[in-house]
Design goal:
By secondary structure, this protein is mainly alpha-helical. It has 30 helices and 7 strands. The chain has a 3-stranded antiparallel sheet with strand order 1-5-4. Strands 2-3 form a two-stranded antiparallel sheet. Strands 6-7 form a two-stranded antiparallel sheet. α13 packs antiparallel against α14.
Length: 654
Amino acid sequence: MTQPPDDWSDAGLTAELRAQLEEGAEEARRSAATFEHRRAADQLISAYQAGQAGCPEGYAVVAAAVDWEQAGIGRARPHRPISRTALRVLFGRHLEQLRPGQPVTAGDWERGLAWALEERVPREPLFGIDRRLLDPDGPAGLALLIRCCWSGEEGFDPSAALVDHARDTSYQLASATWRFILDQLRPDEAFQVGQAAQDQGNVEVARAAWTIAMQASDAEVHTRWVRLPADSYDELAEHDPEGTQTLRQLQTSWPLRRLYYPDVRSQAACNLAVLSAQAGEVDAAKALYRWVVDRGHLDLGPAAMIALGRLCARQGRVEEAWAWLQYAVGTQHPEYAPAAAAELATALAGDGGQPAARAALERLRTASNPQLAARAAYLLGTLLSEWGEDEAAARAALEQAATSGIATVAPAAMVNLGVLLARHDDPGQVAWFARAVDTGDSEIAPYAALYLASWYHEQGDLDRTRDAYQQAIGHEHSDASPRAAYLLGCLQHGQGQVEEAWAAWQQALDARHPRYSVLAATELGDLLMRRRNWQHAKAAWEQASQQPTLDALAAVQLAQVCDDWGQPALAEAIYQRVINSGDVEGGHVAALGLGFLYESRKAKGNVARARALYQRVTDSQHPTASPMAARRLASLNRRTGFGQPRRRRSTADG
């Protein structure tokens, strides 16, 4: 019998086993740290909440410090803790709310401050909650309020646990507190205060704070600018000199000479412009965006140009909108220039006609900026394909985009190229769909797999069809994957693979897709009912009917199957939900189906309900449902004698 070793050291461990043990120990330390952090935070929050009744003076002190952080000043850099003077002012306001009608005294302040500074969470056991507690000479525990020093003056910070708790509970500051904060505000804190106010839904305070930031000097908001070497920028492209000549005379030309970091003032101006546009103050918004353009920021400038194009279009100033979008394209910004090109093409196609849009995109697809050229080629190919014009040119443009190597454009171009070829049953579509699948793009690849599955299914290659559906499902895409799972279930059921179909339809059902989950439930329930598995069939139908959103026509199909299998109550509930949704197409069909259901059931009052539904659908003048409802209503009235004159009784009848 083997005896255990006397030496229990780890000298005999292999390197692999030692690494596994060390990794496990590190994971245990992280778990312990997380647990201790949560435990300490819960204790601090509980102590703070208990103070509202137990020590309102202390609660008011801590609440005042939390207000300072929630106002956004705590997010600004350099961080400024609340001063003793500011803390005392906000403390007084909180205490007056907690003790209406009672005066606030100096004794209240001293008592509350002492309570807030009291250490409540012991040092041990502790795993990384606060570095100061790891210092042997540090505090013995955590407090609700921490005394600190800032610029030689006394300051106070609330516990981070309380700040997080206030944010998670959507805590909002009072109007008087916001006014006090604005009076205390420094320009380098104004932007963050505006963000905090907007997060709390206080637009007026956000506007006031961002105005302070915008109107400050660069030095006051710690913004610096650096001159970059000329070769770090793409050349400024001139695509339409005539169209932009007037604009260039009125506006400062786009400099591309300097980079502001961080450009708080331009960001504040953009935020103010958004607020002005939302309030209908279009001219004010345009003036703010022009200020950003004139400032010449590398990123925000092109974004402001696009926004100006949209605002001008809203005002009906079409040519000015085109000029701004052309100007944004000319910056050759890697993100905003392609976006501007897309908007410009749409605007030109809508207002200037297809030739103007095509001419603009033909110029842009030759740009030196690869992102811009690829985007323009993709847009040109897509538009030509949609218009049904010059398919050879459309194919050439899409091939340029597909082979560009630009990840944001190439996969979609491959799919569109495959669709273009599929119109003529060109087998070349398979190669482009397969290339799109191979990109692994989370948005495009699953749809490309669906196209592949459709092609293989038409060719009778069911194995490859199944594989393509599995590829689409594997991406876990919110739309394409449930669709693929539903179609895979239909394929497998048609091949007699009942268990596999059950699993695929259940997967589609669990995805909670408005259409394909409902269709999967319809098929799955019918399958289970035929196998006399009534319990699971009804569970599948109920699961689908209780989804947050339902495709109206798919839900009508589900209700019809439920009714066919003797589940009228569930069918009625589904029909009624579709009717209540207000769906224009599905609502009429659901009302007609519910009328059928009521007419077939002999319960008291059902005939009247059916008649009312048929009349409602008839009056809607729906092209297909209304004639059917009118015929059913007439038939129902004849059978029930409704609306027919009664036959007068003969005197001979007695």
